[in-house]
């Protein structure tokens, strides 16, 4: 009986990696946003969460700069569960096929997980409880930049812990 009590009330419960339906919603958001982001060569960002009726929805997307984006507080969400943002157009000067350390740190600071779309059409999920970025789907999974050069950043791992991600970015020169 003590073991059952310990297991039920003392051990931490595993956190849900993402909300049900979140991946489908994110892919839909990025399907619209990626071409705009690539054409403008700007990041776009926003949030995913629940509206007043309890429906999982996306906030308005905000236009950022070439390497940064700051979304405003979402008026339509009462409970934010994750952020989302694009990485703009392809450039061999930027390590934009993986999330940045700032992407991960900002999501952690805000207390949300995150989604990142890359110019190569990759989709990444940032789990801020574990501080790991996980490759959800590969090149061309989302709309991609026609100028994208596969292999520009060297091999891309299927997941990166925060420190591994920083090492990857430093080895690229960014």
TrEMBL record:
Q: Where is the DUF4329 domain?
A: 26-138
Keywords attached to this Swiss-Prot or TrEMBL record, sorted alphabetically, are:
Signal
Signal peptide (from-to): 1-17
Q: What is the lineage of its organism?
A: Bacteria, Pseudomonadati, Pseudomonadota, Alphaproteobacteria, Rhodobacterales
Q: Which organism is it from?
A: Aliiroseovarius sediminilitoris
Q: Name one Pfam family in it.
A: DUF4329
Top-rank taxon of the source lineage equals Bacteria
Q: What is this protein called?
A: DUF4329 domain-containing protein
Among its keywords, does the record have Signal? yes
């Amino acid at each position: 009986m003590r073991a059952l009590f310990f297991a039920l009330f003392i051990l931490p419960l595993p956190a849900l990696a993402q909300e049900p339906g979140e991946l489908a919603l994110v892919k839909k958001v990025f399907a619209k946003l990626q071409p705009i982001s690539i054409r403008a060569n700007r990041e776009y960002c926003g949030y995913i969460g629940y509206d007043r009726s309890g429906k999982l929805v996306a906030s308005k997307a905000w236009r950022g700069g070439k390497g940064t984006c700051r979304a405003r507080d979402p008026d339509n969400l009462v409970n934010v569960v994750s952020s989302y943002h694009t990485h703009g157009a392809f450039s061999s000067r930027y390590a934009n096929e993986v999330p940045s350390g700032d992407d991960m740190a900002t999501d952690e600071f805000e207390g949300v997980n995150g989604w990142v779309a890359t110019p190569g059409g990759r989709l990444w999920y940032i789990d801020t409880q574990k501080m790991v970025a996980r490759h959800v789907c590969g090149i061309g999974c989302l709309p991609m930049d026609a100028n994208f050069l596969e292999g520009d950043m060297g091999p891309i791992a299927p997941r990166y812990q925060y420190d591994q991600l920083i090492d990857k970015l430093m080895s690229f020169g960014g």
